[in-house]
Design a protein that fits this description.
This protein is mainly alpha-helical. The chain is built from 8 helices and 2 strands; from the N terminus they run H-H-H-E-E-H-H-H-H-H. Helix 1 crosses helix 4, helix 1 packs across helix 7 and helix 2 crosses helix 3.
Length: 185
């Protein structure tokens, strides 16, 4: 079982596409983002509700509407996205098993339960390190990593694909810039 859900992965990928469209393309609809990545639109809609509630994206309603980042990608951390989608849950939930040793009988001696459980202490340290690492990385960092390994035209292709979809949503019968027709969703 993973601590961080697949919803976080879907959300981060979608937000990365929104970094491409910051100013160059119209806002992206959930349906378009879902089709772009091959993920379920209904599930993605629920994620975007959470992202909007957390102030990471803003939406515009209507046929021309969609989502865009609520602030610059350099000011949205991976941790922000994890908390928005999965909540601010602890990595480990100590059950205080140390007090249940059969040797103790009815009541554990004070020494056995004094202070933080040593196992819980390790888990707390791991969680602190994990959260610090997630806070260290922004959407801008992730976008740069993607840009560094992708062909130079990839960002432009994403923006064009989203733009073509927006044109189709508005009912404008413009031919996509790449000359290929797009199926309507």
């Amino acid at each position: 079982m993973s601590h961080i859900s697949s919803g976080v992965e879907y959300g981060l990928h979608c937000l990365l596409y929104l970094t491409h469209s910051d100013a160059a393309a119209p806002e992206a609809s959930v349906r378009d983002l879902a089709e772009l990545q091959g993920v379920p639109a209904d599930f993605l809609a629920k994620l975007f509700t959470k992202l909007a509630k957390a102030g990471l994206v803003v939406s515009t309603e209507g046929i021309k509407g969609g989502f865009r980042l609520a602030r610059p990608a350099s000011r949205i951390t991976v941790h922000d996205v994890v908390v928005a989608i999965d909540g601010d849950k602890a990595l480990f939930d100590c059950r205080e098993i140390r007090a249940r040793c059969a040797v103790f009988g009815e009541e554990a001696p004070a020494w056995a339960t004094r202070g933080v459980c040593s196992i819980h202490a390790v888990m707390q340290a791991a969680e602190k390190t994990m959260r610090a690492e997630l806070k260290r990385h922004t959407l801008a960092d992730l976008a740069q990593r993607t840009e560094d390994k992708a062909p130079a035209a990839f960002g432009t292709q994403v923006v064009q694909w989203l733009s073509d979809r927006a044109v189709n949503r508005r009912g404008e019968n413009a031919e996509p810039a790449n000359g290929r027709s797009r199926k309507r969703a």
